Automatic annotation (TrEMBL):
Pathway the protein contributes to: Siderophore biosynthesis
Family named by the database record: Belongs to the cysteine synthase/cystathionine beta-synthase family. SbnA subfamily.
Binding partners and assembly: Homodimer.
Cofactor: pyridoxal 5'-phosphate
Organism taxonomic ancestry: Bacteria, Bacillati, Actinomycetota, Actinomycetes, Kitasatosporales
One MF term in the entry's GO annotations: transferase activity, transferring alkyl or aryl (other than methyl) groups
Protein name per Swiss-Prot or TrEMBL: N-(2-amino-2-carboxyethyl)-L-glutamate synthase
Keywords: Pyridoxal phosphate, Transferase
Organism: Streptomyces griseicoloratus
Enzyme class: transferase
Enzyme Commission number(s): 2.5.1.140
Residues annotated as domain Tryptophan synthase beta chain-like PALP: 9-299
Entries under InterPro entries matching the protein: Cys_Synth/Cystath_Beta-Synth, P-phosphate_BS, SbnA, TrpB-like_PALP, TrpB-like_PALP_sf
PROSITE patterns: CYS_SYNTHASE (PS00901)
Length: 337
């Protein structure tokens, strides 16, 4: 198959590979596939959401270079996706971030010419940065002429982008997707996939994967170390009932999931990919033989070299745990850690 010529970098968004994982669970009677969203040009699943939220407004002339400014709050991946699109069309972008945003992501944003606006205070009630970031976005939008806030938490074009994500998965497997493991932040990926599954009457059990300490599925709010998935506030448009099953995963379980993936599949994946992998480890005993199981891997591990893939960082937060990904059977018991 020859590779297509893309008409500009944004043409490369979507159409990511689905890879069968053969070494992860050697004695598992079902096939496991990973949708590698790191293959999007901005490096994550959020390229799809960013394109979906911005392209229509750019094409219709609502967003104009030199006159419009996009303002958005993001922990990293959506920001990078938007940075790429705004740079491509020459539109100014102010990204509101917090101290959890990594130096590497900040450097990427600056390289795209983004103005980074850092909030430093947590919201006194939720003790999270998100409400403060949103407050800051509102201030900026109210004072900058021509400012536009896509608002990934409430914009229906965010989940809409992921109906295509699910279509790609379903088409690759002739509709035989028995289980889909999907991590959640805004809930955009899960919502879009759920809609496609329902509309096309796929036989899929949708397993929502959330961070321990996230409130998306009604869990208690608590401290979380890893950015990307999980949320301190449930977005208004997110319906937790769209998931048939929910698995909560701790930060350590994400690390174990990621390190296991690297060890057995040579895939260097991001934290939420580790989350869905660990969730599969916890859920696998409930999956009958002969099924197709799909995991969505939202981003790549390069963005977590100073955390998940740093032995010093892992030791500082969890002690000596390397045996967890070096002994095959312990992965299945990852829920115990
Ligand atoms: N994983 C990573 C690495 C992310 O950046 C995000 C989005 N913040 C998610 C998972 C969750 O995706 P969604 O917003 O579509 O729920």
């Amino acid at each position: 198959m020859s590779a297509p010529v893309l008409h500009g970098i944004l043409d490369g968004i979507g159409g990511t590979p689905l890879v069968e994982l053969t070494g992860l669970l050697p004695r598992f009677g079902s096939r496991v596939f990973a949708k590698l969203e790191a293959f999007n040009p901005g490096g994550s699943v959020k390229d799809r959401s960013a394109l979906s939220m911005l392209l229509g407004r750019i094409r219709s002339g609502d967003l104009v270079p030199g006159r419009s400014t996009v303002v958005e709050s993001s922990s990293g991946n959506l920001a990078i996706g938007m940075a790429q699109i705004c740079r491509y069309f020459g539109i100014d972008f102010i990204c509101v971030v917090d101290p959890k945003t990594t130096e590497q992501n900040l450097a990427i944003l600056r390289a795209y010419g983004v103005t980074v606006d850092l909030v430093t205070e947590v919201d006194p009630e939720t003790r999270a940065y998100l409400p403060t970031r949103i407050k800051r976005v509102r201030e900026l939008v109210a004072t900058i002429p021509g400012a536009y806030w896509p608002n990934q938490y409430a914009n229906p074009r965010n989940p809409l982008a992921h109906e295509r994500t699910m279509r790609e998965i379903a088409e690759a497997l002739d509709g035989r997707v028995d289980y889909l493991f999907c991590s959640t932040g805004t809930g955009g990926t899960l919502t879009g996939c759920a809609r496609y599954i329902r509309e096309h009457r796929l036989p899929t059990t949708l397993v929502g994967v959330d961070a321990l300490g996230s409130v998306l599925f009604g869990g208690a709010s608590g401290p979380r170390l890893l950015p990307g998935h999980g949320a301190a506030v449930r977005p208004a448009l997110f319906d937790p009932a769209l998931a048939d099953e929910v698995v909560h995963v701790s930060d350590l379980e994400c690390v174990v999931g990621c390190r296991t993936l690297t060890d057995r599949e040579a895939i260097l994946a991001g934290g939420s990919s580790g989350a869905v992998t660990a969730a599969l480890g916890k859920f696998a005993a409930r999956i009958p033989a002969g099924r197709n199981v799909v995991l969505i891997f939202p981003d790549r591990g390069d963005r977590y070299l100073d955390s998940i893939y740093s032995d010093d960082w892992v030791r500082a937060h969890f002690g000596e745990v390397s045996h967890l990904w070096q002994e095959p059977d312990l992965f299945m018991a990852v829920g115990a850690c």
